[in-house]
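JOB MANIFEST
job_type = single_chain_structure
chain_count = 1
residues = 179
[input]
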Amino acid sequence: MEEKLKLKFNINIFFMTRPKNIIIAVVIIIVILFLGVVDFVTHKANTAPNTIPNNILGGDRDEHGCIGSAGYSWCEGKNKCLRQWEEECESKKTSAEEIQRLFVEKYPKYVDTITVSVRIETESYARGDVIFEIGAPGGYFFAMKTNNAWQIVLDGNGQISCGLSKYGFPDEMLTDCVR
């Protein structure tokens, strides 16, 4: 305990007897603080980027313009960017799937058993077969695309009228038509 008192006493005497030492100590502390601030500022200035970083939200657009970091991805079926958890991306349906849906709307009784197969197809016209129940005889259909949506022009199981040519069906779809 005596040693602590002597040490404290010696420090007090050092500063009290030599005011010049106090000034030197204060100047040293100020210089150290100044150098620390200068180092911090220059270090921060040297590490600051000169360009906008690519990892900011919205800086990662893909080839379709979708912002991946915001959760957007391209939906081919809807032809737009969307968030899968907000809006389901329905893939583009085949012409057979779209025509089958039209048959189900027209004949809802066969919703579980109807099958459609397209035999000949162009960009705007389709001809194929429809079966309403497994094992039962089927029929034919002719469909055309208008305003980017399929519609059934004719379905049946008898003779095919050549009058379908007025809708613009290609001749190769009407080889067995009756005049």
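[summary]
The two ends are 126 Å apart (CA to CA).
Residues 52-92 form one domain.
exit_status = 0
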